[in-house]
Amino acid sequence: MASILVSDALSERGLEILRAAGHTVAYRPGLKGAELVSALSEAEALVVRSGTRVTAELIAGARSLRLVGRAGVGVDNIDVAAAEARGIEVLTAAEGSTVTVAEHTMALILALARRVPWAHASMIAGRWERGVFTGVELAGRTLGIIGLGRIGRAVAKRAAAFDMRVIAFDSTREAARSGETIVEWRSFEEVLERADVLSFHVPLTAATRGLLDAEAIARLRPGVLVVNTSRGGVVDERALLAGLDSGRVAGAALDVFEQEPPSGSPLVGHPKVIVTPHVGAATHEAQEKVSVLIAEKVVAALAARR
Ligand code: MLT
Fold it and tell me: Of 12, 73, 149, 243, which residue is the least packed, with the fewest Cβ within 10 Å?
């Protein structure tokens, strides 16, 4: 049976699944630095969320490590190339948080359209300004989705229920082949040019870094709302700031940032921007689902290796 280190928070049920399979589990959420290196020296499996940075250096020192389980979607905190070079398998629980991230995306779109945070702040400040927070209807407007994977599709479905027209771009074109009925397939440029609301659902890779840069922003429809619940870095923050200040972008909602936390970022506190602290996947349901899913996958992968 294997020795498993869990270095970020995992639900009790996830931990039970690992233990019930007979593995020895060291549950040490928040472990960092030398303590992490030392705890990992004997571990055969490591389970993380986004808190632990699984660097090439960490992997090099983990002589017994055979697999890394990521309770969540993004693997940008894991040096996958370094892991693969050592034959270490990297597993994710991508399916667990799809609905939750899609719902947070809809919350941000609605909050931007109806100016909810600003109206709330005004009332909290003792004012009653009924004429100031006139918003826009989503019905009849066009949602442009960049990245039509699991989360992009879940957002499309929800936006369609709001009577939005949904257009999308996905570089893999898988979506086009899979018979989507509620989404119109468009080129990246067409999505930029036609969207009233633009939402990103792609991983951060060399190809997606800075996808919404100054050139892309220059193509946007004036008055567009931009939402990013995918990964910081997909949207070039300096370019977005310029777009907001010029008025081309009417508002933005960001759950993810180039640097987290985004200390000193002019986007935090900007009068046209809603920010949330990377909580797209943060519901009780999603956290439970990703914990259970990753525990099951780790147990199955360890069994397959014996
Ligand atoms: C994910 O990748 O699962 C979400 O962004 C949440 C997280 O990073 O923990």
Answer: 12
